[in-house]
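Shipment paperwork, digital attachment
Item: protein structure file
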Amino acid sequence: MTRRRRRLQRALLRTMMLAIGVVMIFPFLWMVASAFKSNKEILQYPPSLLPTEWHPENFVNVFSDVPFGRYMFNSGFVAITVTAAALLLHTMAGYALAVFRFRGRNVLFFMIIGTMMVPFYSLLVPLLQLSKALGWIDSFTGLIIPWIPHGFGIFLMRQYFMDFPRELRDAAAVDGASHLRTFFHIALPTAYPVMAALGIIYFIGNWDRFLWPLIIINSPDKYTVPLGLVQFQGQYSTQWGTLMAAAVVASIPTLFLFVALQKRIVAGVTMSGIKG
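Attachment content:
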C-alpha cells in the first residue's frame, strides 16, 4: 500500500511538473510560431497556434530592415565583457571574504549583502549623473562598468569558498605558493560549476537589459538587442511577424547557453547554496 501510494505521488508530481512546463514554454512556442506568420494572421481572432501560410522571409527582414547583426554583436560584447570581469573579481572577493581573517570582515560582508536590497531605480539618477561626469554617456564603457560589481556574485562565491579545505592552502604555502597562485591554481578550478551558474545569470541579465541602454545610449550603432527590437515598432504600425522573428533570433544565444550549461548550473547552485 505504501509503495502504491509512493507511485501515485510520483505520478501526480510528474503530471504537475509537466503541466507547469507546458504553461512556461507556451509563450516561447507562440513566439516561434508567430515568427512565421503575417501581421494579419497574428492579429486575427480566434488566434491559431500554427500559421496557415508560412512566411520565412520574416527572418530575412530582421537583418535587412535594420542592422540587427550589429545589435547582437553589441549585446554579446557587453554581456561577455561584464560576465568575464564580474566572475574574476567576484570570485576573488568571495575567496578573500571566506578564507582570510581580518578586522571588519563580517561588517564588510553584510554591507555588500545590504547593497542587494537597494532597488536599481533608486540608483538610476545618481548612476546617470556619475556616468555623465566620467564621460561614459553613449559609450560601451557606460554599458559595461556599472554592471560589473554586484553583491549577489560575491555572496555566492563566498558561500562556496567557506568550505574550501584549509589543508590545501597550507600544503600550497609549504610548497612556496603565494596567495594568488593558490587562488588561481587550486581554488579557482574547483569553483567552475558555481562560476557557470553565476556566469549564465550575468550573461542573460546583461543580454536582456533594456532600461539602462535606453537611457545612456544615443547612437544607433551602439544599440543592443533590446533596443534593436524596438526598431520594428513604428508610430502607426508594427511589423509583428518580423518582431517575433527578431525575438526568436535574440533568444538563441541565451537558450543555447542554458542548454549547454544546465548541469553545471544545477551543480553550482547546489554546491554553494546550502553552505553557511
